[in-house]
Amino acid sequence: MAINSSLVTRDNNKISEPTTNIYESIVVIGKRARQISSTQKEELNGKLAEFASSVDNLEEIFENREQIEISKFYERMPKPSTTATEEFLNDEIMFRPQDEEVEDEVE
């Protein structure tokens, strides 16, 4: 899945089409973006933890090229919001609409 990492203007009608409400669509995209972001952060922290040392000296910081390359790789990845928007528009996200009938059931 190749995702364009640059900014793209989106059509609000296409975004609101699956939920019939632009705000619900944005909430779904936002929740998915947070999931993607937390997954990426866990992966990055796991990879960087291999390079953690108890003693920080200046020579070690400048010599750790592998750590720098891993960080640059994650910086070049598309933003989680971009990935989530693409998934939403390609119907790759499953979501359930909230029931508006909850108040009627309480009575």
Characteristics of this structure?
107 residues, mainly alpha, elongated
Could you explain how this protein is built, in words?
This protein is mostly helical. The chain has a domain at 20-92. The chain has six helices and no strands. The chain has helices at 12-16, 22-49, 58-63, 65-76, 80-89, 102-106. Helix 2 packs antiparallel against helix 4 and helix 2 crosses helix 5 (80-89). The longest helix is centred in the first third of the chain and has 28 residues, at 22-49. The termini are far apart.
Topology summary:
Elements: H1 12-16, H2 22-49, H3 58-63, H4 65-76, H5 80-89, H6 102-106
Helix pairs in contact: 2-4, 2-5
What oligomeric state is this? single chain
* SS summary, helix count: 6
Cα(first) to Cα(last) distance is 48 Å
The pLDDT mean sits at 82
Helix/sheet category: mainly alpha
Shape estimate: elongated
Radius of gyration based on Cα positions: 20 Å
The largest sheet is:
none
Query: What low-confidence regions span 5 or more consecutive residues with pLDDT below 50?
Result: none
Fraction in beta strands: under 5%
Helix content: 55-70%
* DSSP strand count: 0
List the helices and strands in order: HHHHHH
Task: Offer a quick outline of the entry.
The protein contains 6 helices and no strands. It has helices at 12-16, 22-49, 58-63, 65-76, 80-89, 102-106.
